[in-house]
């Protein structure tokens, strides 16, 4: 009798549970799949061809979803690298883990468990290769990794010393099962121009360089006898003059800065081709760690806020009650279903949330990324869908400390 995928994975989970209870031999540990987490710096989703770009940028990387899933509306928890990376590894929001752009902030040794913490305890060899100085070990991002390299790639990000090559070298000799995190610095400014048109050109060239590096890494990983599970995403997006002429990131929680690509090819799919699933339910980068642990057959810690990424696209998107937050220094985005609201930090502590919207508060409706090119359509503040008051009230679910920080000092 031929087993379907769900039955075979159920049997695998049962065998793993037995293994944990009775003690595993080195040979039996390879039942668990190898896993790869690939992140880039500031890739906005619509920079890639599979997310509506009119260019061919990212075509090879987008192919990762051919046998897996492409998440159309994935959102980062922060608009800058360090807090976003920690949110991804801990499945908690910046207001919970407290790591910010301030280099003096770090992940506590006794803080929330991280993805590599859990994987290493579950028998995985763990390593990270990051090409970004803001993700250095002094901030304790190396917690849970057997091997952590945080040296920037230098002048030749595609050369022999690149993070991709170093990761390939490590996986070729690491004991199985293994987990590796590879972070690429591309595309990262500042680009030496204030002209929006020239900035967009420079940004596109950086994304093309990234695409070459990613395709080379994925090709090597897929040459393995058992191709690993690969999850690819970006730590944040990038503004290209879309709103108020802003260039860069970290300024405000507009969609261009918080919407990111997310492609997930689970180890169940293997390295072959298949019918890719296009998931339109909004998801968060907090969902990355629970998803990888689920593939490893390991339970997530109770501190994790994220959920396992959906493997199918539910029809009940509009009535989905899940709320996702994206945090920035001066604002928060609240996302539920197709509703996307940007709230200035100064309004979060407002007593009367049904009062008229503050000047910078904006309500957006997430349009279909294929039919409409992926650009959210804006509605005038205060005149959007009937769910606005209910969605606006979701800010009360933010941690109390976040809301207190936004309250004005009565002594001033």
Q: Could you describe the 3D structure shown?
A:
With 412 residues, this protein is an alpha/beta fold. Helices cover 26% and strands 18% of the residues. The protein is built from 12 helices and 18 strands. The strands form 4 sheets. It has an 8-stranded mixed β-sheet, sandwiched between helices. It has a 5-stranded antiparallel β-sheet with strand order 14-15-16-17-18. It has a 3-stranded mixed β-sheet with strand order 10-3-13. Strand 14 and strand 15 (331-336) form a beta hairpin. It is globular and about 50 Å long.
What general form does the structure show? globular
The count of β-strands is 18
The largest sheet is:
8 strands, mixed
Distance between the termini: 75 Å
Percent strand: 15-25%
The unreliable regions are 1-30, 315-319, 368-387, 399-412
Radius of gyration: 21 Å
Strand order of the largest sheet: 5-4-6-1-7-11-2-12
Query: What's the average pLDDT?
Result: 74
Q: Helical content, roughly?
A: 25-40%
Q: Helices and strands, in N-to-C order?
A: HEHEEHHHEEHEHEEEHEEEEHEEEHEEHH
Q: Count the DSSP helices.
A: 12
Structural class: alpha/beta
Short description:
26% of the residues lie in helices and 18% in strands. The chain is of the alpha/beta class and 412 residues long. The longest helix is centred in the middle third of the chain and has 27 residues, at 196-222.
Overview features:
412 residues; alpha/beta; 8-stranded mixed beta sheet; 5-stranded antiparallel beta sheet; globular; disordered N terminus; disordered C terminus
């Amino acid at each position: 009798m031929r087993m379907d995928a769900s039955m075979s994975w159920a049997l695998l989970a049962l065998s793993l549970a037995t293994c944990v209870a009775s003690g595993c031999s080195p040979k039996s540990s390879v039942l668990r799949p190898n896993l790869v987490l690939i992140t880039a710096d500031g890739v906005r989703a619509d920079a890639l061809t599979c997310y509506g770009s009119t260019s061919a940028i990212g075509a090879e990387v987008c192919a990762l979803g051919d046998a897996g899933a492409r998440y159309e509306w994935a959102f980062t928890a922060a608009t800058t690298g360090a807090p976003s990376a920690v949110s991804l590894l801990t499945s908690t929001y910046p207001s919970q883990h407290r790591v910010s752009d301030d280099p003096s902030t770090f992940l506590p040794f006794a803080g929330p468990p991280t993805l590599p913490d859990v994987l290493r305890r579950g028998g995985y060899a763990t390593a990270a290769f990051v090409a970004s100085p803001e993700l250095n070990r002094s901030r304790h991002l190396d917690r849970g990794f057997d091997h952590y390299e945080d040296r920037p790639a230098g002048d030749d990000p595609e050369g022999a010393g690149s993070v991709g090559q170093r990761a390939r070298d490590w996986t070729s000799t690491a004991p199985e099962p293994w987990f590796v995190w590879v972070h690429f610095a591309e595309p990262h400014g500042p680009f030496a121009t204030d002209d929006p048109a020239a900035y967009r050109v420079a940004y596109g060239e950086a994304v093309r360089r990234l695409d070459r590096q990613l395709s080379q890494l994925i090709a090597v990983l897929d040459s393995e006898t058992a191709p690993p599970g690969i999850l690819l995403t970006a730590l944040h997006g990038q503004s290209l003059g879309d709103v108020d002429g802003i260039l860069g990131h970290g300024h405000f929680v507009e969609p261009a800065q918080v919407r990111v690509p997310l492609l997930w090819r689970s180890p169940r799919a293997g390295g072959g081709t298949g019918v890719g699933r296009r998931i339109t339910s909004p998801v968060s980068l907090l969902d990355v760690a629970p998803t990888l642990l689920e593939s490893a057959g390991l339970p997530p810690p109770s501190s994790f806020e994220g959920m396992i990424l959906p493997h199918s696209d539910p029809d009940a998107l509009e009535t989905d009650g899940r709320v996702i937050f994206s945090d920035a220094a001066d604002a928060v985005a609240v996302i539920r279903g197709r509703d996307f609201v940007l709230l200035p930090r100064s309004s979060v502590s407002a007593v009367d949330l049904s009062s008229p919207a503050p000047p910078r508060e904006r309500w957006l409706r997430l349009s279909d990324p294929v039919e409409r090119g992926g650009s959210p359509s804006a509605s005038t503040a205060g005149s959007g869908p009937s769910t606005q008051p209910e969605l606006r009230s979701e800010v009360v679910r933010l941690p109390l400390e976040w809301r207190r920080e936004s309250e004005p000092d009565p002594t001033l």
